[in-house]
Write a structure and sequence with these properties.
Layout lengths: L2 H8 L4 H21 L2 H4 L5 E3 L12 H4 L15 E3 L9 H4 L4 E3 L4 E3 L8 H5 L6 H29 L1 H20 L4 H28 L3 H28 L3 H9 L1 H8 L7 H6 L3 H14 L5 H4 L2 H6 L3 E3 L11 H25 L9 H10 L1 H15 L1 H21 L5 H29 L45 E3 L2
Antiparallel strand pairs: 1-4, 2-3, 5-6
Helix pairs in contact: 2-9, 2-10, 2-12, 7-8, 7-9, 8-9, 8-11, 8-12, 10-18, 10-19, 10-21, 17-20, 17-21, 19-20, 19-21, 20-21
Amino acid sequence: MRFEDILTEVGVFGKFQIISLLILCLPRVILPLHFLLHIFISAVPPHHCAITSGGQIGNLSHEDLHIYIPTEEDGRTSSCEMYSHPQLSNRSKETANSFTVEKCQHGWEYLRSTFTSTTVTEWDLVCDKKGLNQASATFFFIGLTVGSVICGYLSDRFGRRWILLVSFLISTIFGILSALSVSYMMFSLCRMLSGVGLMGMTLISITLALEWTDVSHRTFCGTISSLSWTAGYMLLALLAYLIRDWRWLLLAVTSPCLLAIATWWWVPESARWLLTKQDFVTAHRYLSTCAKMNGKQDFQLKISPEVLQKIVTVECRKYNFWDLVKTHQLRKNTLCLGIMWFGVAFSYYGISFNITSFSLNPFLTHFIFGAIEIPAKIGVFLLLDRIGRKLCQGGSLLTTGVFIALTSLIPTGMENTRSVMAILGKGFSEAAFTIAFLYTAELYPTVLRNQAPFTDADRDLSSDSSNRPEDRSMPAESSPNTSHGPETMRHVL
């Protein structure tokens, strides 16, 4: 008996699944608040060398600045150089620019009309140290990479629910410490560790939501979960507009993690996972709760923990990372999905982080980039089950590339047109991201769902494999009739 058969007895998509889905949407709202936070807390405001220690940008007029600061070819004041000696104001600009220049000696003055404080102004991450500004974002994404490995493995070993709580705690603690950082190194380290917890929230929230539903409702659940990301995306634009200090903004986007911790008590463990671990009593308890909330009162009379154990018919071994590359088909699948995810993430974040190159202000640009995701995700919901995952995935990625290319080719003077092309490209990149999450999660086996891109090592492990002809092959190693010694265990899938 497949898990879907048991799920039919308790209700495939009733009150229990709806409440669980709504609770698990909260982590998805929190994620973009941190994933895209670098855009605002590490923004680089206009700046130039400080004339004296403690000076402000408004102390001198633009013309008077030419006495101390050289100008670039485009007429803008230099950001990283100053004259070694003040130049007479009655000399021409060309004559003044011929004098000896040097690097900033007294720090920098920043235009604070848009942001009162960022990590750039806090630690002067400009000019020779501008690479450190981008490095802080790199550290954060390194944390996400590490978190995808660690949290994925731990959730498959110890359960989705408890590792989700650990992820909440890590994100909260190191999010607060990031806001309280007294040095650049402390900030970067805390952001990296915060990324570890956030990736755990990413993986487990979507996995739990999908593992409690049947195949026919997965597209809907995946779309709703993805729309919660969009809500967080647009919320970040509002918070950044209202809170211009980076420390307070960091605290503001971290505070929802406390609410997530409070709602964790109502998050159910995955019954699929519990059955793979032969914990029939706990699995039966959650299934009974699901049946009761969905109005299936006769479940406990028909199926007991002992019955669950007896109806288990599929036998397989424990899985690990090696199984992703053990056969030719698995190696091909893992490689192809890895390439796909690189293209999806590279295009999505490449557009999302570039909000200062268009005609709108950064807050409005960010908000529109989030708003365009709503029709994109509705389109995914309407088309995904009609034309298939592969065609949707490939088409959305190809269209994203076309719009990115058009944005690059449009002349600089046509800012409005470039903005429209970028917004459309952002919409299709989000469609590709939504499909990738749903498609990948559907192809995971229960015992490896959080560890790998995807595998069809056992078609029975993938709950909707019967609907996809490309997944109907099963390597010999994964045959239900194959014994694997002490590693063998029986479970419902």
